[in-house]
Amino acid sequence: MGDQLGNLMNGFANALTPMNLMWVFVGCLLGTAVGVLPGLGSSMAVALLLPVTFSLDPVAAFIMFAGIYYGGLFGDSTTAILLNTPGNSSAIASTFEGHRMAKRGRAPQALATSAIGAFTGGLLATILVAFFAPVLADLATVFGPAEYFALAVVAFIATAAVVSDSAVKGIAALGIGLALALIGIDGISGASRFTFGLPSLLDGIDIVVITVGLLALGEVLHVASRIHKDSTATAMTVGKRPFLSKGEFREAMPAWLRGTAWGLPFGAIPAGGSEIPTFLAFGTERRLDRRRKDPQFGKGAIRGLAAPEAAANATAGSAMGSLLALGLPTSATAAIMLAAFQQYGMQPGPLLFTRNGDLVWALLASLFIGMFVLLIINLPFAPLWAKLLLIPKPYLYAGITVFAALGVYATSSSIVDLVLLVLLGLLGFVLRRFGMPLAPVLIAVILGPLAETSLRRTLAVSEGDAGALFASGITLTLYGLLAVGIVWVVISKIRGRARVDI
What we know:
Elements: H1 2-15, H2 18-35, H3 42-53, H4 58-83, H5 92-103, H6 107-141, H7 145-162, H8 167-181, E1 184-185, E2 192-193, H9 207-226, H10 246-266, H11 275-290, H12 302-326, H13 332-343, H14 352-355, H15 357-386, H16 393-412, H17 415-433, H18 439-461, H19 473-501
Antiparallel strand pairs: 1-2
Helix pairs in contact: 1-15, 2-3, 2-4, 2-15, 3-4, 3-13, 4-5, 4-6, 4-15, 5-6, 5-12, 6-10, 6-12, 6-15, 7-8, 7-11, 7-18, 7-19, 8-18, 9-16, 9-17, 10-11, 10-12, 11-12, 16-17
């Protein structure tokens, strides 16, 4: 422990120079600026801005990268909260209560909640990485195909049962998402499925197209359909109070810590990025909220935003430990960072701390610095970002539509993707019209391929023996927790109906 602390202090000595501080400041600004553009997001911000860092020396380059990394994550949440358009799939869970807060005139508080949650989750995760990276690496090695499948099943059922008030609607939405996930080439056999003869669908439907279509364009169509029927559907205001009150801070603090606890272990395992912990954190807060005398979920619950934000950034932080200790990228952004290491002739893995220790510890120090700089920049700017909602509604939603189309087209230059965007927007509108939840659709699209591939690999290795799905302690624990959760939900609903009958 003492050696790690000394190495970290040396890293801060290398990182805390006026020029390096300028680069982390520039990185935070650029990452946030690109991240807030609908359809782009944090991974696109990193990909677009990474070449800029190659002209710098390695320490300055990775310090600037740290700013871009966390700035892009905050940009994802900004568009999720204000425009109901997550820049990346890690911010999907933040749209549910975050956007409701914005619609009720609490956009500055929502953005402040996001910034502090990102800081809390990222800070605790980076501390964990700095001192316990080998432990995180060991966690990643114990997960095989059967464990990944169990994890996906738990995420499917938990999301379908928790996010929706109706289990039937939740499962139906899950089925729609799994159907979308089947489009493309089968990863095991190489056969094409449901592509309708279109070569552009061989790789499946991009997650950016699905999230922007269902959430952004679907919201635009929903608002447009009710603009003359329900004036509150488009009535957005920006409150005068820019920051969190003491009461709001006390309410959000436990959710930040619970969200961080969900996010920390998931960064070390390649189980679909930060989507699982953000949804699990959201579901936990929703279950706790139902026990309150005055439930807030559905009205803009601050805890429903605080927990997913902390979980997403805790996952992003612990993913760095998996990358550095194992050379295992567990997210798209981590994969881009792996390319950055290789650009400088370094290979992340067990020997990285020995061969390139000075640079690694400077990078870890820069992650701490980047989070503080991001908090300093974005807390004062929260009211300014919130004023986007003061744009007249026809112009605002027209702008969302234009930026969504441009963002989707920029990622692939495909007309087919634009057609899919419109079709998915209509699907999102229909789902809203009939009160079906969007979260199960999105989590099924994201984790469907992982679940299918893991299931088929497990059965292939075991020669068709289904018992292999339950052969390890981890899988039995996950299925056991799932069974307990289902029984608890059923009992709670039975008791609820009994109270109503009385």
